Amino acid sequence: MAPDRRGTQPWRDPRLPGYEGWARRHPRGLKAAGVGPFRQPSACSLINWTDQGIRNFKATSDRAQAATAAAESMGGTIKEIYWTVGPYDIVTVGEFPDDETGTAFLLALGSQGNIRSTTLRAFNADEIQAIIAKIG
After folding, report:
1. How confident is the model over 95-118, as pLDDT tens digits?
2. Burial of 106 by CB count in 10 Å (0-12 exposed, 13-18 middle, 19+ buried)?
3. According to the model, what pLDDT value does residue 136 have?
4. What pTM was estimated for this model as a whole?
5. Residue 122 pLDDT more than 90?
6. Do residues 118 and 45 make contact, with C-beta atoms less than 8 angstroms apart?
7. 77: containing domain
8. Residue 60 forms part of a structural domain
9. For residue 126, how far is the Cα from the chain centroid?
10. Is residue 114 part of a domain?
11. CATH code of 124's domain
């Protein structure tokens, strides 16, 4: 006997055909569509202070906390922040719902005038294996 599907929304019910197609077309991606488990795209940012940023280096911890809060308000997370010695002043690892949101976050952060960033899209072992599998 088939389960009772009265009141279900076929486009939102993972047991029904066509669900995956709808989820992939959902404007906010698979996570919003309820398809899981979902892993947000990761990015590593290599950050340098600007002249303004280095003049105000004592406020760097406060700025990092504000940046973390801003990322969370946009649906992202800053997983790690490292202050470094070498060619970069700060290295961060973050996750955002999509590349556009991550880019918007970095533009907002950079517009404050304290940093310049170079950002790298990062893949974990499962993600790189899926990429390699597409080659055949």
Report:
1. 999 989 999 999 999 999 999 999
2. buried
3. 80
4. 0.69
5. yes
6. yes
7. 42-131
8. yes
9. 17
10. yes
11. 3.30.70.920
Tokens of 101: 């949101």
Number of domains, the chain: 1
Task: State the alpha helices, DSSP H only, in the chain.
Answer: 19-25, 29-33, 51-55, 60-73, 99-110, 125-135
Q: Would you state the structure tokens that stand for residue 13, as one six-digit string?
A: 């019910």
Lowest mean pLDDT among 23-32, 42-51, 52-61: 23-32
Residue 113: inside a domain? yes
How many whole angstroms from its chain centre is CA 15? 29
Tokens 């499962």 sit on residue: 126
pLDDT of 56 reads 95
Of 117, 59, 112, 124, nearest to 92 by C-alpha is: 117
Judge contact between 3 and 9, C-beta under 8 A: no
